[in-house]
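hey all, quick one before standup. I had two proteins in the batch that finished overnight and I want to keep them in one place so we stop losing track of which output belongs to which input. First protein below, input sequence then C-alpha cells straight from the run.
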Amino acid sequence: GAPKYPGSRITNGEQASRGQFPYQAALYLDGRSFCGGSLISTTWVLTAAHCTLGIDTVTVHLGAQNLNAVEAGKVTVATRNLVSHANYNPSNLNNDISLIRLPSAVTLNAFIQLVGLPSHSQASNTFAGDAVVISGWGRVSDTSSGISPNLNFVNLNIITNTVCARTYGTAVIVSSTICSLGANGRSTCNGDSGGPLVVSHGGFPQQIGVVSFGSSAGCASGAPSGYARVTSFLSWISANTGIHIANF
C-alpha cells in the first residue's frame, strides 16, 4: 500500500468565516508542533494521540479564525493534563486518539461552541457515502511551507474501509478507522492532525472522525485520508471525561 505519514492538511479547500466552525481548536504542542482539535465539552478537547505523545504542555486556542490576529471572543489556555489512548500504536496508527483537559471550564460564546458526539446506537453505522467536512489550519498546498494563518475547510465523502484498505492495507485500516476521499485532489495534509471530521446530524455538527493520517504521495495525490473512528471510542471518551454519551 501507499506509505502513510501522520497528519493532514487541507488542500483545495475554502477559507472558513469566523464562527463557522466554533468547535475547532488550535493546539500548540510544547511550542514546537501544531495540531487541530475539537471542543467536546466545556473542559475537554479531542485530538490525535500522535499529537500529544511525549508532549508536556499544550496551548489551546479556541474561537480562532486567523491565528495571527487579535480576535474578540478568542480564548487561549495552557494545560498539561493530557490523556492519550493507552493502546495507541505508532507503527500502524491504530487508536490514534487523545484527550486534553482544560484547567477550567471555558465560557461558550458565538465563536466557541461544542461539537456533538455520536450516540451508542450509531456504533453500527459505517457512514460510508456520507458527506463530511474537515477544518483546520494546515498547509494549503504541497508546496507551501508552514501552516495557514486562516482556518480552512473542505467537503469530502466517507468511503468504506474495504476501499481504503486497498491503499493502506488491513494492518492500518481496522474497524476503529474511518476514511474519506475528496474529488479533484481535495484532501487533508500536514498541520491538521487531530482535527475534527464532522457530519451534519439533525442540523447540528457531529464528530465522527479525528484526523490521523494521509498519504506520503502528497496531499493532492487523490489518496484517501484516515481518521480515528469516534464511534469506536465512545466508551473510552466517557470513561476518561465523564461526558454522557446518549444511547440513541
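OK second protein, same deal, sequence then C-alpha cells:
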Amino acid sequence: MSVSDADKLITSDDQDHPANLIPALCAKFWTLGWVTGTGGGCSIRDDDLVYLAPSGVQKELMKPADIYVLSLSAQDPTQPQQRSYLRSPPSYRPSQCTPLFLAAFTRRGAGCCIHTHSQWAVLVTLLLEQHEEANRNVFEVNNIEQIKGFGRGPGKAGNLGYHDTLRIPVIENTPHEEDLTEYLEEAMEAYPDTYAVLVRRHGVYVWGDNVHKAKTQCESLDYLFQLAVEMKKLGIPWISDIPRIAADRT
C-alpha cells in the first residue's frame, strides 16, 4: 500500500471515524487523569481494520496523523513480534498495549478497548493487596446503582442490576506492558462475563461492543473505583446484604 493510500485510512471529515475519534477520546481522558504522561490509550475496531493510538505521544495533543492501522485478519498469531501495519505514523512507535487491545477484539469481539492509568483503579488494586490471598485478585461490589452500567456478559441480554455483584479480575503487573497479554487472556477465560481487567499498581483495560459501550463502562468503573476507595476510608464494605424492597423485573 502506497503512502498516499495508507493515509486515506486515517483521513475523513466524519467526526466518528476512528482516526478522529481516538484523539478526541484521549483528549477527554487526559482531562480525567486517565492518560497522564503519555500513559494509557485507546483502540477502535472497524470490521477488520484496527486503529491504535501510538506509544510516546501526549494523548491530549494526538492527531489523526498519529494513528496506526492494521488488518486484524492479516496478523499471524504465532508471530506476535512481527506485527504488520497498513499505516504507520513516521514519528512514533507502536504501542505496547497493542496485543492487549487485540485480545479484546479477537477473544471478546469488542469494537473498542480503552486502557487508563486512573489513580482510582490503581488504589483499588492496592487495597486488594491487603485482603486474604483468595480475595486479592478480584474486585467485587454490589448494591450500588452504577453497576447497572455493565452488561451481563458477551452474548447475554441486558445489564447487571442494582443487587447484582460486579466482579473485575486483577492481574499482576509486568515490567513490559506487552508481557501482560497472556495474563489478561487467562483472566478473560476465568471471568468470561467481564468487560474489564485491572492491572495491579498500573491501571485497567476496559472494552465494549462499540465505542459508546466501552466509554460508558469505563466511566462507570472509574466512578465505582473512586466510591470503593471512599467506602474503605469509612469502613463500609464493598459487598453488602441489604433487603430488597421490590421484585426484579424480567
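Flagging for whoever picks this up: The radius of gyration is 18 Å. Strands lie at 41-46, 49-52, 68-71, 112-116, 138-142, 165-171, 196-199, 203-208.
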